[in-house]
Design brief:
CATH superfamily: P-loop containing nucleotide triphosphate hydrolases
Number of helices: 5
Radius of gyration: 15 Å
Helix content: 25-40%
Largest sheet: 7 strands, mixed
Strand content: 15-25%
CATH class: Alpha Beta
Strand order of the largest sheet: 1-3-4-2-5-6-7
Structural class: alpha/beta
Shape: globular
Number of strands: 7
Order of helices and strands: EEHEEHEHEHEH
Distance between the termini: 16 Å
CATH topology: Rossmann fold
Number of domains: 1
């Protein structure tokens, strides 16, 4: 997909802050430090549009990015590992669940997992929740450049075995591996 424009629109800390123009939305979910911001910047070919950090849990709101004036990328707060209070972590979970449960214009959920590790308990809980809700989604195994081709192939098989059903795409924000395959899935979801 050709990216003519990509802009940060708003951060939403509660439902009343969500966008209300009815444009389709592609939601990105994953644990803290899985590389969501790097993936978003890579897909949109914009450095620093989504803020990256070495400190897990920096995204504390639902962030809306308008792409080509016709759809949104929606960056949801990461789960797990964030150095925040349990109350704040609970609020994030509630906010994300409300969004995922009630958003009518949600075209696709993209769950990110770190390819260097087996899916965590939290990854599997989100996967099961999405399966149960019959939400359109796929899994992206990030940080593919950090493993050899053999290691990555083995990890991909483990991820597919633990999370059967959805498409699993290997991705590297550094090399661009998987970018076209992921865009192809996003474009298909937007046409549905």
């Amino acid at each position: 997909m050709k990216i003519a424009s990509a802009e940060f629109v708003k951060s939403a800390f509660e439902r009343s802050h969500w966008t209300d123009d009815g444009l389709p939305e592609i939601a990105f979910l994953g644990r803290s430090n899985v590389g969501k911001s790097s993936l978003l910047n890579s897909l949109l070919q914009r450095k620093g549009l989504a803020r990256t950090s070495n400190t897990p849990g920096r995204t504390q709101s639902i962030n809306f990015f308008l792409v080509n004036g016709s759809f949104y990328f929606v960056d949801l707060p990461g789960y797990g590992f964030a150095r925040v209070s349990k109350t704040m972590r609970s609020d994030w979970g509630k906010m994300a669940e409300d969004y995922l449960s009630e958003r009518e214009n949600l075209a696709l959920c993209i769950q990110l997992v770190d390819s260097r590790h087996d899916p965590t308990q939290l990854d599997l809980q989100l996967y099961e929740w999405l399966m149960h809700r019959e939400t359109p989604y796929l899994v992206v195994a990030t940080k593919a450049d950090k493993l050899s081709n053999n290691q990555f192939a083995k990890q991909l098989q483990i991820i597919k075995a633990k999370m059967p059903g959805p498409e699993v795409i290997g991705f590297s924000a550094v090399s661009g591996k998987g970018r076209e395959a992921l865009w192809s899935e996003i474009e298909s979801a937007l046409k549905s």
